């Protein structure tokens, strides 16, 4: 990750919903990002479009205003991407890069829709909003990889992938996975309630556990070391970990969630 925003070009974003808003918040929070170079295409007013507009961004630009765009980001739903992109496919410069964060939409299909312009695909998490995201990146094109990396590296750890198909497991392990982790934390809170905690206390403690777990690896510590630091020999953590491992329970749940996400991503790409 980098401390400052280094990409020196106009940026256009189509779709400012949940992920698009997170991207906008992340860019606006990155030192050196020039909001007056951001153009957002979105059919509704959102708090992110308002925030971006107040900072100097253009909302729903004219074709003329798209002429200096060096990168066009697609953050719409897979079902509507062709109609959302169509009005802009020909107005952006011939050498503009197109970056898609959509799950399951194939790079070749996007490249054809934008007249062969270089395309990168990324799979980020919504924590880009807090500049603490991660994003898998694939592109066969060096320029697209470089421009997309520069666009995301102020708000995400950009992880290069060697093949497009690897974006599907990246969706399961990163893009969707924060929701899987929240589901586990919710289950922990319910288990605490079953052991006698009041609901409020159970949720506060479980959320605190999530914060503590994230803080414990924020310096890049290995997951194994982080586990060992908490699991005293013969103690409560080891007892809990052993229970999680009975019949491969934790691994089975993770495998089921990732496989289902991968299967859905493959399904979307058909
Ligand atoms: N939500 C997440 O955590 C992540 C989402 N993604 C990908 O991001 C993409 C967007 O997902 P979300 O943000 O969750 O969906 P969303 O439904 O919250 O946002 C999509 C936005 O696109 C806008 N839109 C639709 N048609 C439009 C058009 N013709 N012109 C302009 N704007 C238009 C909608 O008004 C909406 O605000 C999806 O392809 C998804 O696979 C990827 C990683 C994480
Ligand atoms: O649920 C979805 O389809 C999107 C892609 C990854 C996270 N959210």
TrEMBL record:
Residues annotated to bind NADP(+): 14-19, 75-78
Keyword Repressor appears in the UniProt entry: no
Domain Pyrroline-5-carboxylate reductase catalytic N-terminal: from-to ranges: 11-104
GO CC terms of this entry: cytoplasm
The Pyrroline-5-carboxylate reductase dimerisation domain, residue ranges: 164-267
Top-rank taxon, per record: Bacteria
Broad class of where this protein is predominantly found: cytoplasm
Listed InterPro entries: 6-PGluconate_DH-like_C_sf, NAD(P)-bd_dom_sf, P5C_Rdtase_cat_N, P5CR_dimer, Pyrroline-COOH_reductase
Gene3D superfamilies in alphabetical order: NAD(P)-binding Rossmann-like Domain, ProC C-terminal domain-like
Subcellular location: Cytoplasm
Gene Ontology biological process terms from the UniProt entry: L-proline biosynthetic process
EC nos: 1.5.1.2
Molecular functions per Gene Ontology: pyrroline-5-carboxylate reductase activity
Catalytic activity field: L-proline + NAD(+) = (S)-1-pyrroline-5-carboxylate + NADH + 2 H(+); L-proline + NADP(+) = (S)-1-pyrroline-5-carboxylate + NADPH + 2 H(+)
PANTHER family named in the record: PYRROLINE-5-CARBOXYLATE REDUCTASE (PTHR11645), PYRROLINE-5-CARBOXYLATE REDUCTASE 3 (PTHR11645:SF0)
Function, in words: Catalyzes the reduction of 1-pyrroline-5-carboxylate (PCA) to L-proline.
Family according to the record: Belongs to the pyrroline-5-carboxylate reductase family.
Descriptive protein name: Pyrroline-5-carboxylate reductase
Top-level taxonomy: Bacteria, Pseudomonadati, Pseudomonadota, Alphaproteobacteria, Caulobacterales
């Amino acid at each position: 990750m980098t401390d400052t925003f280094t990409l020196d070009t106009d940026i256009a974003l189509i779709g400012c919903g949940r992920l698009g808003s997170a991207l906008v918040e992340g860019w606006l929070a990155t030192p050196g990002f020039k909001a007056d170079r951001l153009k957002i295409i979105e059919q509704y007013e959102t708090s992110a479009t308002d925030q971006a507009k107040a900072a100097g961004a253009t909302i729903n630009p004219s074709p003329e205003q798209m002429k200096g765009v060096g990168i066009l980001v697609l953050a719409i739903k897979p079902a509507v991407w062709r109609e959302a992109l169509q009005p802009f496919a020909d107005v952006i410069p011939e050498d503009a890069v197109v970056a898609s964060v959509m799950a399951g939409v194939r790079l070749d299909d996007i490249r054809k829709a934008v007249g062969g312009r270089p395309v990168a695909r990324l799979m980020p998490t919504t924590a880009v909003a807090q500049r603490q995201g991660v994003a898998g990146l694939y592109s066969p094109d060096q320029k697209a990889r470089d421009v997309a990396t520069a666009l995301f590296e102020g708000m995400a750890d950009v992880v290069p992938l060697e093949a497009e198909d690897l974006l599907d497991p990246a969706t399961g392990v990163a893009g969707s996975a924060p929701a899987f982790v929240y589901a586990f934390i919710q289950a922990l809170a319910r288990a605490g309630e079953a052991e006698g905690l009041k609901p409020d206390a159970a949720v506060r403690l479980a959320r605190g556990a999530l914060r503590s777990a994230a803080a414990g690896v924020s310096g890049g510590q290995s997951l194994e070391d982080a586990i060992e630091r908490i699991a005293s020999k013969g103690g409560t953590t080891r007892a809990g970990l052993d229970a999680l491992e009975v019949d491969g329970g934790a691994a089975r749940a993770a495998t089921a969630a990732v496989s289902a996400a991968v299967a859905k991503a493959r399904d979307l790409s058909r």
